[in-house]
Every structure is written in structure tokens, then in C-alpha cells.
Amino acid sequence: MWRDAALVAGKDLRLEARSRVATGQVAPFALLVLLLFAFALDPDRGVLEQATPGLFWLAVLFSALLAVQRSFAVESADGVRDGLRLSGLDPAGVFVGKAAAVASELLALQVLLGVGVVVLYGASPRSAGLLLLTSLAATVGLAATGTLYGVLAAGLRARDTLLPLLVLPVLAPVLIGATRAYEAALAGTPSEGWPWVALLTVFAVVAVALGVVTFGPLLEET
Amino acid sequence: MTTSSKATRTLGVLVLAGIAALLLFGLVLSPADEVQGDSVRLMYVHVPSAWLAYAAFLVTATSGLLYLIRRTRSRVWDRLAASSAEVGVVFTGLAILTGMIWGRPTWGVYWTWDARLTSTSVLFIMYLGYLALRRLPGDPDVRAKRAAVVGLVAFVNVPIVHMSVLWWRTLHQEPTLARLDLDPTIDDLMLFTLFLGLVVFTLLYVWLMVHRYRLAWLEDRVDDEGLERAIAERRAEAAADGALVGPAGSAP
């Protein structure tokens, strides 16, 4: 399974590296979201600073939607999906691979957004360990859930509108947990953040487990 | 064709009698709350609705799981999951609505970012998505699988959402949560009325489910029969064509 996962993740990441959609569209979109938040709240710099964790994770969430849609748009073009099924790869491996590719894109995006909030919003990051672990746990949860719903929505005619409706409420705990943990980290009170990291980890584990179990039946008949 | 039978009619009469009794106890016999006054009576509808919402979604998740497992795969589970989700969404909406009506006199606002309200509204939107997914046209088997996964994931999220927003709340100080204190100080009659509400609403759920399930089954049959009839018609046409072609072909 791990070998298959590495193959699929490598394929997706190579595709992204060559097509430059992630760097050329998704990343600028995320930065644009940050700018728009600033336009909306800028007159009051204090509000912007206070809302930084929430805005950061909202930007990540919106970009994650794009990344997931992109990840499956790639599959449905040119019958790649049939190719995947015929290749004899373990469905669980395909799931883990695709989720890992989305997760690494999101992590790169978060580095970019992190620089963005420091420069634009004047955020001052403290407790780097907490920030890092929060990002890791939240990203795994986001990527796994997104991938599961991505394959679900792939091939549906209404997928562009249905995917956000289905996936955003499910990701509400990730948004809440990651925001609170970042708040604690930025405020310099990391002890308040760790329970949220635990919640994010539980969410990530459950999402990955569900994905591994249910991806097979979904991939085989959509 | 009707979706009722003698048993469901009996059950329906029972539910009606139960609702009448609930009205009597809830509006007349049970006392008003010392602090909240008469608005506490909304509890007798509100709490059972919320409980049924959770119960209905549990049924949806369990049926979805049974559908996903190859050994127990059957359209029965899919229909059950769909019916229960629909009924559950109605009760979730009712719980939110009664909660808001209750919130206006008690908190002074219809909507506050209270833990219960927030988690329940997230739940509501989740299952609206589930129903939207179900309504898309397509192969019933594929649709059933997708719906089963969504129902399962959404339900796994219920306790997480619930708890996380509770924690979330505890970090902020806000007015007291809408919570029912089932401590000994609650009036016996109030407790009984609440319990009666739970029983009556559960019976109502069963009654609604029976009808909704049969309706789903009839819909499936209409689909299947429509297909069979179409095939039969095409065959008849082909046979008729053959009959026409035969003599024409043999003509000089």
C-alpha cells in the first residue's frame, strides 16, 4: 500500500509541478483571500490582528477546496481514473497517495500564507512547535477529508457546487481546532493550544481510517 | 396504492392520542418555570426533536454502513438511510426553530453563538448536503454508496463537533447554556411531561419512517417497472416490425 501511495503522490505532485496550476492559481488565490480580508477589516488594525488565526485557516480551507477539485479534475480528464483502476493499485494506497499530495501542497501553501500574515497583518509567531504540530494535524485532516469527498463528488455534474456544501460543514471542527490552537500560539500561551492539537489529531486519524476503508468501493464504481 | 396498513393506522391513532396527552400535560397540567415562565413549555417539543435528530442520523449512519459492507448490501438499507435522514432533517429544523423561539424571550436574541445552536446548525447543513447528494440523478447503486459514505462521515463528526464547540464556548464567557438540569429540583410533572414527549416523538418517528420507507420502496418499484415496461414495449415494436417486414420482404 505504501509503495502505491508513494507512486500516486509522486504522480500528482509531478503533474502539479509541470502544470503550475497550484503555484500559478491556488497560491495567488490564497494570498488574494488574505488581501480581501484586510480590505474588509483594515480600518481597524486591532481587529485584523485579533482575527489573524481565523482568517489564516479560512484561507487555507478555501484553498484546500480548490486543491481537491484540481486533484480530481486531473483524474477525470483523459480517462486517468480508468487507468488508475486498471493499474491494479491498492485503492487504499491511491487514497493515501492523493491525500499526501494534497497535504504537501497545503503545507507549502501554509508557509506562504504564514509569511503573508506576518507581513500583511503584523502577526508575531511564537511557540513554533505548537504552530508546526497544529499545521501538520490539521493538514492531514483537511487533505484526507477533502480527498474522500473529492472522489465522491468526482463525476457528478453538480460537483463544483456540491463539494463545498458537503465538505465545509464536516471540516468545521478542523477550522475551530486549528484556529484556537493558533490563537494560543500567537498569544504566547501554548498550554491552551495542546488540547486542540489532540482534537485535530483524533480528527485526522478518523478521517484517514474512513478514507482507507471506503475509498475502494467509491473508486470502483464512479 | 396506499402506504398504510392496519398496524400503521393503529400506530397513527396512538401517536395522535399521545400528542393530545402531550398537549394536555405540556400546556395545562405541568407548572410554569419559576424563572422562565411559560416559555419552558417549548422544552417538551424542543428536547424530543433534538433527541430524534440524533437518533435518526444514527439510523442513517448504521444503514449506510450495512450497505457498504458487501455481505449485507441491500437496497433496504439505502432506502432506510434515506428515509431516516429526511425525517431527521425535519426534526433538526424543528429543534433549531423551537430553540430560537425559546431564545428570544430568554436570551433576548433569536440567535446566539451558543454551543448547542452552532453544533446543531452545522449538523443541519451537513444533512442538507446529504439530501442534495441523494437527489442527483444517476445509477442508484453508485448513489447509494456515495450517500452511505457521506452519512457515515457526517455522523462520525457529530460528537466531535458537539464537544469541540462546547470547549470552544468554555474559552469564551457567555450567558449560560441552554441546558436542561435534570437534577432533583426539577418538578416531577415537568420531568414526566418531558419523558412523555420523548416517547410520543419516538413513536411519531417510527410512524413517519414506515410511511417514508414504503414510499421509497414504491418509487423504486415505479422506476424498475418503468424500465421493464419500456423494454416490453420495444420488444413488442420489434416484433410488430418483424411482422411487417416479413411479408414485404417476401414480396417480389
Q: Which helices and strands appear, and what pairs or packs with what?
A:
The complex is a heterodimer of chains A (222) and B (252).
Chain A: H1 2-19, H2 21-41, H3 45-76, H4 80-86, H5 91-121, H6 128-153, H7 159-170, H8 172-187, H9 194-220
Helix pairs in contact in A: 1-5, 2-3, 2-5, 3-5, 3-6, 3-8, 5-6, 5-9, 6-7, 6-8, 6-9, 8-9
Chain B: H1 6-29, H2 43-68, H3 75-107, H4 115-135, H5 140-171, H6 188-250
Q: What letter string, H or E per element, gives the SSE order of chain A?
A: HHHHHHHHH
Gyration radius of chain B, rounded: 25 Å
N- to C-terminal separation of chain B?
54 Å
**Mean pLDDT value of chain B:** 80
Low-confidence stretches of chain B: 170-182, 246-252
Helix content of chain B: over 70%
- Total helices of chain B: the number is 6
Order of helices and strands of chain B: HHHHHH
Oligomer: heterodimer
Number of strand segments of chain B: 0
User: What class, by secondary structure content of chain A?
Assistant: mainly alpha
Number of strands of chain A: 0
Q: How far apart are the termini of chain A?
A: 21 Å
What composes the largest sheet of chain B?
Answer: none
Can you give a write-up of this model?
The complex is a heterodimer of chains A (222) and B (252). By secondary structure, chain A is mostly helical. Chain A is built from 9 helices and no strands. Chain A has helices spanning 2-19, 21-41, 45-76, 80-86, 91-121, 128-153, 159-170, 172-187, 194-220. Chain B is elongated and about 85 Å long. Mean pLDDT of chain B is 80; it is low at 170-182 and 246-252. Chain B has helices spanning 6-29, 43-68, 75-107, 115-135, 140-171, 188-250. Classes of the chains: A mainly alpha (222), B mainly alpha (252). Chains A and B meet through helix 6, helix 7, helix 8 and helix 9 of A and helix 4 and helix 5 of B.
List key phrases describing it.
heterodimer, A: 222 residues, mainly alpha, 9 helices, 0% strand, globular, B: 252 residues, 6 helices, 79% helix, elongated, disordered C terminus
